[in-house]
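Appendix B. Raw example, untouched.
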Amino acid sequence: MTVLRSALNTADDTFRTNYRHQKQVLAELEEQVQAAIEGGGQRYQKRHRDRGRLLVRERIELLLDRDASFLELSSLAAWGTQFAVGASVVTGIGVVSGVECMLIAHDPTVRGGAMNPYSLKKTLRALEIARINRLPVINLVESGGADLPTQSELFVHAGKIFHDLTELSALAIPTIALVFGNSTAGGAYVPGMCDYAVMVDRQAKVFLGGPPLVKMATGEDADDEELGGASMHAKVSGLCDHFAVDERDCIRIGRQIVSELNWHKLGPGPTMPADEPLYDPDELLGIAPSDIKVPFDPREVIARVVDGSRFGEYKALWGTSLVTGWASVHGYPVGILANARGVLFNEEAKKASEFIQLANQTDTPLLFLQNTTGYMVGKQYEQGGIIKDGSKMINSVANSKVPHLTVNLAASFGAGNYGMSGRAYDPRLMFAWAGSRLAVMGATQLAGVMSIVAKSSAAAAGREFDTEADERNRAAIEAQIEQESHAFFVTARLYDDGLIDPRDTRTVLGIALSAAHSNIVAGQRGYGVFRM
């Protein structure tokens, strides 16, 4: 492979402007991440500690191997909504007893760990990631159940959690419940559905109905321990497999269970040299644009992410708005598709289709680096078959079976989002740089389209066009789309798996690739009909 030569000028005004902008964006991101870490705030954290209990991230830290990485997912879930940032649950991929696992941990300092609609989405996405990547699941349970005022948005879909837990078990993907506190009503089925259940003495409360409900329903008097304590479930009901004397003992037992799984990956390990890139990843902050309408060369990103800055480019002189080629990240071979000038033309669409099929023939995972405004429009391109060629690319993406990893570097607009393996095309994991944007099109373009439609409608109806009202509508629509395409808004709704610092891209991709190789890595051997 060729070693990429960087042409980046770090003294350039554009670089400096981009760098300052990205630092500001990352400061805003860090502020929101810190809000998620603080959970319910100091008052509720203190109350939790006063009860002799560990905070959610302390439990996670003790559960993980010493100095192991933890790739937290959807940290800003529920941002900008009535619910706490982070959605009262922490999810992520971490190594426990040498095994990469999916962790799903309730934060009891936020409304007792109660589940809201965003908690549900976040949990279901974590279970989906565990299934498609074949990762054992560890639930760190302490939740008061559903957030009752939002039950209409929860009840029907929440049953999918139990469905997915038992599906994982049927697929021989282990599921473990470490119960630190409440696991009541529907939540009682989490330890019930998991392969292994560990409960903490005098803290775990696992029952379908608590004392007040039992009294109302049956007239029977019973306390928490009789109904659902760890001792009762260990000695009487048999629901508890392991009785823990305290939280640290519960975590110790959880680690022991994982160590005894006899777990092994189905995909190959790293096969390429995993040497560091030749260029400083800090320079990625100056590459990421402050204005997403300004293009940049994705090779400058690739040179700071892949092993040894080596990149074997494919069809370098054809379809140049899309860069394709072969590399490796932390020793794992990858095929890379990266937008160079935003727009996808006919040649780029056909080039991508061929490249994706080649990757599937060689069982090589694909990395999509998005910065696209979509497929080209206009008479020349419509007559030239842009719909057919775009369909080929989307067909190739949809039917590809090798792991896909997607990172939105700047812009992901229109059908380009689909062709570059957006959320709807089931990438194993999908991340976005903190300054990126995602929408059907740019805010100015969308507002302009709406204005043109309004003018046409007025003309067709024989009405006078209100220019002043149109200007107000355009400004309002533009502001709305700017807000809804903002990276924080997008990640809050789990349209990606988290926002990342550009400098962490290589590390995040390394963890994601390692996780993906827990499952079989094999390409598609047949495709649907291509419109030629």
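End of appendix B.
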